[in-house]
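lol ok so funny story. i was supposed to be doing the assay writeup but got distracted and ended up predicting the structure for this chain instead. priorities right. anyway since i did it might as well share w the group, maybe its usefull for someone
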Amino acid sequence: MSFSRERWYTGITRYQWIVLLIALAGWMFDIFEGQIFVSSMNEAMPSLVDAEDQNNIPLYKSIAFGLFLTGGAIGGIFFGMLSDRIGRKRTMAFTILTYSFFTWMSAFSQQWWHLAALRFLVALGVGGEWAIASTFVAEVFPNKARAQASSIFHASGTLGTLLAAAVGAFLIGNPAFIGWCNGDTMSWTHRYVDPASLPWRIGFTLGVIPALLVFFIRIYIHEPESWKQAKERAKTDVTQKTGSLFDLFRGELLRPTLVGVSMAAIGMATFWGVHVFGKDVLLQSVRQQATVKIIEENPEKYNQITESGKNGLKTRLDERRGEFKRWEMLGMVLLTIGLGVGQVCFGPLSQKIGRRKTFLFFHLGGFLITIIVFRMVSGVMPLLFLLPVFGFLTAGMHAGYAVYFPELYPTRMRGTGTGFCFNAGRLLAVPVLILTGWIQTQGIPPAVATTYLSFLYLLGPVAIYFARETKGQELID
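and the output, tada:
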């Protein structure tokens, strides 16, 4: 007796694959535009801040993150509503052009607040693109393939982070490239900017490349039939109008909106307050190991009690800046690999045990692994093995937003609801990040501040308790 089990991708059309490919390319570059700041902030911020103000850099970084989340919230809500009114195709093109242009403009920043303000403008497009692309994928793919396709779509952001890490390691932190920027070839730029800042500036100019995606959007994709039908109904029935923000807080849509916003707020606060600092744990461990080795070689010369000893040690460590940058980017890559695997796994796992149980697994796992990595483990080798697990558990649930949020709303409100939930969560996470930056300026170690934030993962089960299960259900028409 033989059994046949249909694969989730059986029967998927060429057009559906094209939509998924374009959506994930847009999201990949979307994430790149966000993560290029993460991979370059340790070089960019010091070069934009006066010497006497260097101690405030952690606060300035947190302000930049906060503005990025605020911009993402505003852009996601605005463009989500716009996509319900004028269509998914045109709005997606607008969002990609927005984040491409302002990332390119970031290369010309002259003060730290210039870069922070441009992060806000970049995020307008970043937040909007995710809302529309996730809605597009959900509406185009059939029920049996929706969770898997949406997870793959969201996990494609992993490639954007890896691309940002590659730019950080092989461009921004590459001694040969740094030497080229300081050489005669680029001497004409030295009258305008510090040559030491050229590597990170060139890294930001790469952000204009995603604008090419607009060409493929215009040629290869069209509006989903479900959206066209919703627009026709709205013409004859005032209760079916599209893209109304107020409708999210009325009747049966209120509960899913509150649940979605709560889940996204927890995810955003822990991602930017916990997950992104995982790479720094490895960097700090490598620097500490290098410091111990230098002192052991010549304890009298590099005595950290004397001023000359401290300066000599700092000089030796600065000479290895390129090596440390590569270790930092390795940490980022390990986190991202784990994150990508976690996000790809969310879809099939949620099809098997349900959306709510899958969210619960990742929230509890994220809390436990954060305590282990930040408070219980030390040394380079253990971290090399643990960081992928850390990435898997601390951010795997983010793919669930692409799977779950579009399932909560009818077609006429899907872009608005999905965009609002995901991006209002960004807005609510901003005070947490500003508080984190302020705590670090008070002398509290980053690992301690991050450990405090990890308790936010335990709020996840509270939101999940009020969430409804959507496994196996068709999208609401």
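The CA atoms of residues 17 and 116 lie 37 Å apart. The mean pLDDT is 86.
back to the writeup now i swear
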